[in-house]
Specification:
This protein is of the alpha/beta class. Helix content is 20%, strand content 31%. Helix 4 runs parallel beside helix 5. The structure holds FE2/S2 (inorganic) cluster.
Length: 342
């Protein structure tokens, strides 16, 4: 048994014991400490922390979750690391992101499912009544939940596109991955009334309410979902600060949720939307390129630097971070959520 000490970004010390045979994420949960995570299998990077002292063995993981540079600088994935000595770690999140009760699990039925552009679906679930939670869908705009198939054969994390509500509605935009177990279910077998298990809410990709800066959202494909959630929340709160949305897809026929974006522009008159298509067919008259390129243009000569929220595949996150840093946006004002194929 080894001792693990984890210091959060705001200086809180969290300690727990770890057996050599368990991952650090499981070890923490055995002590009722629920650290930020998502896929739990080395694919998403949500559980990445820094290591100051001590040795770990890393189980197999994806290079998009932990790059060689990050690993060489000492970073580890809590869901893939087993202790081989006492450990001193530091976390990129605040203590507020740490849970001390199990993540809620609830049942929800499919109430709507329909195509959303080519290659994605819009899925709406309705929570069943629950003794502990009633019917309400309680979460913070920008968070995700993990969905499990009725037979338990596959589970996958998806960001919510709507806002917290009392009637228990959860809305998602989900990219269909070729041969993905969850995607095959959604494409071929999902039916209205099917029951899914929902584990969540989870995640720290939420608006920083302590900041007065403008909010600029950079979204690749279905990475639009958490941006819609946060923008809809701003509309509900009557938040008048400047905001922009850079929404990008590869081809014109992949565009989706344009009606939702139009409604948002009415509710948030200050919202400026740039819709970007990387490889458009001839008739496209909007921005040609990636949302990170559109961001680069928009940041040129801007008077007040915005907070940047980026969600999408790892290359979009990397391109957005370098565009924002080049324009002098501080690293701490760039918030990201990686979407990884599954
Ligand atoms: S939770 Fe560890 S990499 Fe996804």
């Amino acid at each position: 048994m080894f001792k693990v000490s984890l210091i959060t970004r705001d200086g809180a010390a969290i300690t727990f014991d770890a057996e050599p045979s368990e991952t650090l994420l499981d070890a923490a949960e055995r002590s009722s400490i629920y650290l930020p995570s998502s896929c739990r299998e080395g694919g998403c990077g949500a559980c990445r922390v820094g290591r100051d002292h001590g040795d770990v063995e890393l189980l197999p993981y994806s290079g998009s979750a932990l790059s060689d540079v990050e690993r060489d600088s000492g970073d580890i994935l809590l869901c893939r690391a087993q202790a081989r000595s006492d450990l001193a770690l530091h976390a990129p999140f605040d203590q507020a992101a740490v849970g001390y009760a199990p993540i809620p699990e609830r049942r929800a039925v499919i109430s709507e499912i329909a195509p959303a552009g080519s290659g994605a679906v819009r899925l709406v679930l309705q929570y069943e009544d629950n003794a502990a939670f009633g019917r309400a869908a309680q979460f913070t705009a920008g968070q995700f939940v993990e969905l499990s198939l009725p037979d338990g054969a596959a589970k996958r994390s998806y960001s919510l596109a709507n806002t917290p509500n009392w009637d228990g509605t959860l809305e998602f935009y989900i990219r269909l991955q070729p041969n993905g177990a969850f995607s095959s279910y959604l494409k071929d077998r999902a039916a209205l009334g099917d029951t899914l298990l929902v584990r969540g809410p989870q995640g720290q990709f939420t608006a920083d309410e302590a900041s007065a800066a403008e909010r600029w959202f950079v979204a690749g494909g279905t990475g639009l979902a958490p941006a819609l959630s946060m923008l809809r929340q701003m509309a509900e709160f009557g938040d008048g600060r400047g905001c922009r949305l850079f929404f990008g897809v590869n081809r014109v026929d992949e565009l989706f949720a344009l009606d939702v974006i139009e409604d948002l522009k009415k509710a948030l008159p200050q919202l400026i939307v740039t819709t970007c298509v990387w490889k458009p067919e001839a008739q496209w008259e909007g921005f040609v390129g990636t949302p990170a390129q559109a961001l680069t243009h928009a940041l040129t000569g801007v008077a007040e630097l915005p907070d940047i929220y980026v969600c999408g595949p790892p290359p979009l996150i990397a391109a957005t971070e370098s565009a924002a840093l080049a324009a002098n946006v501080a690293h701490t004002r760039i918030f990201s959520e990686r979407f990884t194929p599954a």
